[in-house]
Each structure stands twice: as C-alpha cells, then as structure tokens.
Amino acid sequence: MPMRLVLGLIVIFLFTNFVEATKKSIPPTEKDLVGVWIGYEEGQMTFTRLDLRNDSTGYCARISAGSHVVDIHRIRKWSLRGWDLSVDMTPMSPNVARLYLKGWGGRAYLQVKIGTLEGNKIEGKWNRTLVLSPESEVERCNQETKRAIEEAQK
Asked: What does the alpha-carbon distance between residue 12 and residue 121 come to, in Å, rounded to a whole number?
C-alpha cells in the first residue's frame, strides 16, 4: 500500500475521532421527560414511581420493601434547565416528611437525589440517590427477556 494512502487513512481516522469526541450532547426537553419513571433508590429498599405531566405537575409515590403503605407526594412544579431536573413537591399522605427531588435528567434515565427538606433548605435528615428509567422501557425489556427465556425452554 502506498505511503500516501496510509497517511491519508490515518488523517481521516484521526479527524473522525476528533469530530466524534467534540460533538456536544443535546440536553433533553421537558417533553422528553413527560411520562412515568420508575426505579429503586440506592440499597434497593424503596421503590419510586415519578409521574411527570405535560403541565409541569405530577405525582411521586414511594413504597418501602415489606411495607404496604404508599407515600404520595403531589408535584406542584417540575422544571428542566439544561440537564438539571428540579421537582417541587408536597406530601399528600399523612405523617410524611416534605421531600425534595433534584438531579440530572436524560432521555434514557434520571439520576436524582431525593431527601427531606429542613424549612426550605435541602439539608434534611436523609437523602438517597435514585436512578429511574422510563416505565415503558422497563416493561419492554421485561417482556423481551421473558419471551427469550420461554423460547430457550422449548
């Protein structure tokens, strides 16, 4: 192979890698986040369902392992600024602490912190990390893997 061709291919390869590395990710829009997001907090002890509505309101419901009591919070307003998701909510269930939820919003998952509020400060008694996935995607993956196992058993 002539040296010019090899050098040309190297230049093209390096340029392509440079362009790929410098591409900026496009943050999601609020429309991308509308829907139901589900998942467990770190430690897998509490399941969370986050229902984000078109009108920037919604609901957050949480249940701990072994419990039959669901804590419900009304989302008064949720917003997205770039990648940053912020959720303002108020408890609907009795004897439930006021919580905050904020973090990073993407199209494929949400990575957020949830915890108690002390007044208006995000410095309550506890906070946890949540990774939430779109409910529809979790259901799709569950059905596909279930079918694959059923096929493998035949």
From this structure: 52
Domain chopping of the chain, boundaries = 30-144
Residue 39 to residue 47: CA distance in whole angstroms: 6
Which DSSP state fits 118? Answer: B
H-only helix segments in 29-86 = 30-33
Query: Would you call 53 helix, strand, or coil by DSSP?
Result: coil
Q: What's the CA gap between 26 and 119, in Å, rounded?
A: 35
* CATH architecture of the domain formed by 30-144: Beta Barrel (2.40)
* For residue 2, pLDDT beyond 70: no
140-151 tens-digit pLDDT: 999 999 999 999
What is the residue whose two structure tokens read 């590395």? 21
Please enumerate in sequence order all residues whose Cβ is within 8 A of that of 20, keeping only pairs 6 or more positions apart, or say none. Answer: none
Q: Which pTM value belongs to this model?
A: 0.78
